[in-house]
Amino acid sequence: MNDIGLYGPKVTSDELPDLIENIFDLNKKQPVYDRACVCVWGHSGIGKTSILLDFANRPVVWEGQRYSGYSVKVVPLAEFEEMGDIIGWPERSIKMYRESSGLSMDRPENVERFVPVSLIQNYVDDGWIVHESYGSKMHYSVPSWVPTQPGPGILVLDDINRASSRIVKGLMRFFQTFSTTSWGLPEGWNVVMTANPDEQDYQVTSLDPAMLSRMAHLTMEPDVNKWADDWAIKDEGIDRRGIAFLLQYREMFAMEGCSRTNPRNWARLFRAIQGMEASREMETIARSFVDDHPVEAFMKFMKNPDDLINVALLITPNDLLYGNKMESCLSVLRKYMGRNPRLDVMSLVMDRLVDFVVGHEDIESDSSVAINFRQFISDDCVPDDILDSITKRVVDRMGQETAIKWIMGDEKLSSRMRNLPNV
């Protein structure tokens, strides 16, 4: 997809949470007036906001206490028209005080405070007295969406560059201090924003250099393997034929030049056609969600499905490396790699496997996961050229020192690698 108008390094959905937390850790060391909010850039429908919502289930330690997840509050800034929606609405307040009471008097707010005019009678009835020597002050009624409890928490400003320029300009100070003139985020909270490209076919508000310099930027790249293995296959509402289609035609997962073809709309389509036969009705539904060009390929696949559907369901990296399906997976592949070998099937499985391995660099060489990986790729059903490609890709993407943990230690694999023509 086109990279114009995107900022920061390209990262996968697996890498994104760790990188965001690294910036949270950095903020703990920064002065309160110079913290960094995170802006996650990416095309529409690739799951940026969903990943941030998943932080609610991401264990975290804060102030020595372990939490099952972050508090996550999503604020759709495009719905706001005035800065009053951010800082709150002004309200005249009068200073009041109270004499001795059963409340703890070491807390200033129990002795005197400014009270909105509309609540003065309630306070008088409760024993408070108007401080005649003070005039009135203007205070703000803080919006209900503003977090009040200490963290760990994440305030998600969704679609930051779809807000009006007035709102974005008014937030410049907030981007660094996490506070406005009327309120500030509680301790432990951080700010993460999402944004679409600002120089393509999106109706967005461009962010100028002064705004961009106040943020840490990451660009999320759509990854069909991660989408399939980490999410889609676990969702029983997603039609398995659709998963197989995208795994085979991965260039259609998020197509450049196709404004409606993205992971979100594919998922909507696959739910809508669950259990349907290929038909004109299915084609009509498909065209309502994604662009015409991918629909033509999709309908051709649906009218002539092959056993790739079974491969997509059966041979997933998680099942292969963590489960007990090694032999059943190899049996399936041996069938495909017989007299008329299906290299497309083998490539499909290995592409997903390599992506999985690269995302798990901390595995030890003697772990069952690494042993299963070596046993699988060394099987005779894996052609030499694919084995050569796998090992080179693992080394290129992980570095030789880390890759050795995955590819060394199996006698059969070592023997095959020594005999490869390109090794």
Explain what this protein looks like in three dimensions.
This protein has helices spanning 15-29, 48-53, 84-87, 120-125, 165-170, 172-177, 209-212, 224-230, 240-248, 263-272, 280-289, 292-303, 308-314, 317-322, 326-336, 343-358, 368-377, 384-398, 400-407, 411-418, and strands spanning 10-11, 37-41, 60-62, 65-67, 71-76, 89-97, 112-116, 129-130, 136-141, 153-158, 189-195, 215-220. The protein contains 20 helices and twelve strands. With 423 residues, it is an alpha/beta fold. The model has no long low-confidence stretch (mean pLDDT 85). The radius of gyration is 28 Å and the shape is elongated. The strands form three sheets. Strands 1-12-2-11-10-5 form a six-stranded parallel beta sheet. Strands 6, 7, 8 and 9 form a four-stranded antiparallel beta sheet that branches.
CA gyration radius, whole angstroms: 28 Å
Helicity range of the residues?
40-55%
In terms of DSSP E residues, the strand content is 5-15%
Structural class: alpha/beta
How many E-type strands?
12
Mean pLDDT: 85
Q: How many helical elements?
A: 20
Seen as an oligomer or otherwise, the chain set is single chain
The coarse overall form would be: elongated
Which regions are unreliable across 5 or more consecutive residues at pLDDT < 50? none
Main sheet properties: 6 strands, parallel
Distance between the termini: 34 Å
* Strand order across the largest sheet: 1-12-2-11-10-5
